[in-house]
Amino acid sequence: MIKELLLGKLKYLSFVVLDIICLLLSNYISYGIYINFVPDNNINYEHTSVVIIMILVDLMVTLFYNSIHLALRRRIRVEIYKSFIHVLLSFCLLTVILFMVKRGSDYSRLIVLLAYVFDFIIICLMRYIWKQSIKEIMKKKKDQKTALLMTTDRFLEEGIEELKKVDVDVERIFLLQGKGQEELYNIMVLNDLNEVGPAICWEMIDRVYIYGLDHQMVPEILKKSCDMMKMKFELVDFNYRVIEIKTIKNDDPRIGALSFLESMRDIPFPIRRAYWITETEASIKRGFHAHKLNCQLLYCPYGKIDIILDDGEKRDTVTLDRPGKGLILMPGLWREMVWLETGSVLCVLASEFYDASEYIRNYDDFIAYNRKYRKGS
Ligand code: TYD
After folding, report:
1. Is 69 a catalytic site residue?
2. What are the helix (H) ranges across 171-278?
3. Taking the complete model, does pTM exceed 0.85, yes or no?
4. Residue 272 CB–ligand 1 contact under 6 Å
5. Cα(317) to centroid of ligand 1, in Å?
6. 276 Cβ inside 6 Å of ligand 1
7. Are 353 and 273 in contact (CB under 8 A)?
8. Crossing angle of helices 48-65/109-141, nearest 10°?
9. I need a labelling partner for 104 at 20 to 30 A (CA). Which of 23, 47, 132, 364 fits?
10. Is 289 in the pocket of ligand 1 (CB under 6 A)?
11. pLDDT digits 0-9 by tens, 200-247
């Protein structure tokens, strides 16, 4: 709750204050009903101390249950559910406390019960009105659509540029395996995945873009938060990408060059498997398959190999001819490899463990699979 309070600041606090106002209002109504409509009521009954305990209980429940989580933007059914649990927890906790600190004749159980019933109704209503008002004010202040961009180190700059082209201003960044930076390209970086949902909520970010990552890489917690706020995230995907692998060369060429890659930073997936193909003669062809899930990085540390890529509509060829050239392949892409020089070595870093059932080895099946899952038809 504390983190969300820091992210939401005054907007978050306003919901806490609103909760207390609702509680006071509901007590006022239930007390009025009790005095006016209940026969033989205890007119001298003093309710203020009970209300104070109620407010403290309310704050405790807000603190521990975090009932204001994503409150500004959550769906109506989530709002009703959260408010109901909040009121129920408060009622149970208050009952226990009153049982311990007061005698039965010191307060009216009827008023307390009625107050919580009214509180539930008023909270749902008031939060809805309050949310709409804040949204309207914030909409007027903004002159451009804002976005949260989730990507990797390697694709950050490219992602920001791509979004600029469609007139979207990146307001927050979340990097897979970020290095703890606070700011990049003058944009605030979120380093904790738990902050992503609240930032989208309280900053009223319009869109969520996942750039260059496969759908498997979208964290569950982000999916859940987006679902709570009825927001769709947009996967800005690519089928393949040639990357420059970082390489350190020495002044003395005899010492050679050192190339390196980091999982989830330079390549948009975790590495679960590595394999390499050696002792192959020139003009030999391999591959002839696509993957349903597996993301890969291909590189050729020695020799020359053509990688023919087919997305079902067009064919491209990428030649791997030096250790510093890498080829990222996302799922749903048919590939064929042609060895151009004898002894060329093909190395592969893969996102999945070996699973024969995740391969598509027949071209017609690949076309049918792509039509069904990739093109959304
Ligand atoms: P295959 O995928 O057919 O190679 P290519 O597409 O390059 O021609 O794999 C050859 C064999 O190796 C096949 O029997 C499966 C096995 N294999 C594994 O057991 N684990 C692995 O990680 C890979 C890549 C292949």
Report:
1. no
2. 193-202, 220-228
3. no
4. no
5. 22
6. no
7. yes
8. 50
9. 23
10. yes
11. 999 999 999 999 988 888 999 999 999 999 998 898 888 999 999 999
